[in-house]
Amino acid sequence: MPQTVIYNTETERILHWHTPYYTNTRGQRGIVEPPLIELDVVNTTSPSYDDFSEKAILSWVVDIANRRYVATWTILPKTEEDFAQEAEIEDNNISGAEIRRALSTLLVVDDDNIGSIGNVLPYYRVGVAYKIGDAFRWEDNPYRVISNHTSAAHWRPDQAVSLYVRIGEPGEIPVWVQPTGAHDAYNIGDRVRHVGKVWESTINANTTTPGTLPEHGYWIEV
Q1: Residues 164 and 110 in one domain
Q2: How confident is the model at residue 127 (pLDDT cuts 50, 70, 90)?
């Protein structure tokens, strides 16, 4: 039997989730009688959206004609207040002691020390005046700022390659990302992970996809 709700047709409000009885104000259970009617609950899944710059708002709509109570979703762009609240929630998950320990050693963030301090870097925020060399976390990955700027919602750290570079963990082989130009192309000896394999570049300024153009040998599987 589908999940149902009781709908009051006189006051136009949902009274109680139930299957298939309702409960009155004195805690007594009874069968459904007019003006109360049963509505089948239709849960719908959230549509796909960019959870970095957008938010999904759930609301419920009463469809009397079809006796349904339908979940509906509205996709809206996140506001500056949304970004600030998210950053505050993330920062509250880090203890003061962790932050103090990080700041005491966070003179230079590089591939040698990121393994020990990367998990306590501050989270990326929109509207911050970042300077070259600043470091932060985004989607649990550490990033370094490579150009002075004020962060904006449409500059995602994983896509704005002219502004940020992901800092690799010691010994970590990064996932291959399509280069956008000479500034982020792969060079001889660079290793990447792609489609479950590890590849090494045999040329400089390599912008090809690992596993393609095997006749040229731009990448070798290692």
Answers
A1: yes
A2: confident
